[in-house]
Protein: histidine kinase
Amino acid sequence: MRLREAALLVAAMTLVLAALLVPLARLVQVSAPDRAVGAATDKARNLEFLVATLGRADLDVAVTQANSDVPRYPATVYLPGGVALGAPAPRTPAVELASRGSSFTAAGRGGWEVVAAVAASSYHGAVVVRVFVSDAELTRGVHRSWLILALLGFGALVLSVLAGDRLTRATVRPIRELADVSHRLAAGQLDARSPVHGPAEIQAVAAGLNHLAGRIQDLLRQERESVADLSHQLRTPLTALRLEVDATPGTAAIAEHVVTLEAAVTRVIEQARRTGTPPPAVCDAAEVVAARCAFWHALAEDQRRPSRVAVPGQRLPVGVTETDLRASLDALLGNVFSHTPQGIGYTVSVTARSGGGARVVVEDTGPGFPAIDAVRRGASGAGSTGLGLDIARRTAVASGGSLAIGTGGGGGARVVVEYGPPPDPRT
Structure:
């Protein structure tokens, strides 16, 4: 914006200065010859008076003195009989014409001649006064005046650009502050606010942005409290269920599931009410995948599902929290158990990802995905909520990875999830 404003200002000032300085430059060029010829004419008139009042000896001294005082316009006085006083110069056609009683200004070789005839009785004939103006005198001072005008115009242009830049900067600064606040809000800094200053229109935008940020903060706070309240309401029946399971013999596995469910509800409450900086997003993908596959293995044995898990013996750090990675794996494995018949096997493999991170592949031998966009949030072809794959996808994307679905080698569903490496602590 500043560059566009500066270019527009330079163009406008250039037109204004051109409209002002070009006529002035032309006026200087035209007036210089008039000034020189006028000065020569005045000198010629003074010599005419001297010719009419002085004798020959005094006239010679007067002409020499006049040439010394104004050397730029050499003067010559032609007396009858071919005698010339003052600056040596040949009798030109203009002098010959003036000797017949004429006074005029004519162009000559190398300049202009101002000639005047004087009728003086003491010289027994016509006396001609000639003052010469060279071509250099006709243009004297023109180039210097042009240079001065050019410098003045350039100076005026620079000052106008500097003044315009200050005005533009005063307008652009609030706009940049608005953009910075909008980026901070997009990054999750909901307490960011823009100072309200600048032109009235920008002040209105800043006030509106601040109001919007405050409103978003209020709505998120209400949503977090609502989720926390709803999750907290689930803890009472879960506690009752756990107590009843504990009192019933032979339900150790069910009790373990209830405890896991209680822990999940607790995490939901903590995440919903968390307003500070989240913990560092990093965990060992190999360890988490191995733990979750071991958890689901018991259910797989109950449903006679053959399973194969391939986890490397080395750490695979990824830029995902352990809680989010566990939720993603549970969503992927939960889909296998929920949407395929009992007895359908599955495979889970973990490998290192090129550039850091990990690559997790979950594949089953079931009927595959329905003919819908299974990754789209809320889309489901089996009567579920349609959130599982979307949860896994958002977790992968947040770490710098991706999620892709397809068909496995046995014709069943195949989900490939790539998790990016953990963030560099130095950045």
The CA atoms of residues 68 and 74 lie 9 Å apart. The domain at 2-143 is CATH 3.30.450 (Beta-Lactamase).
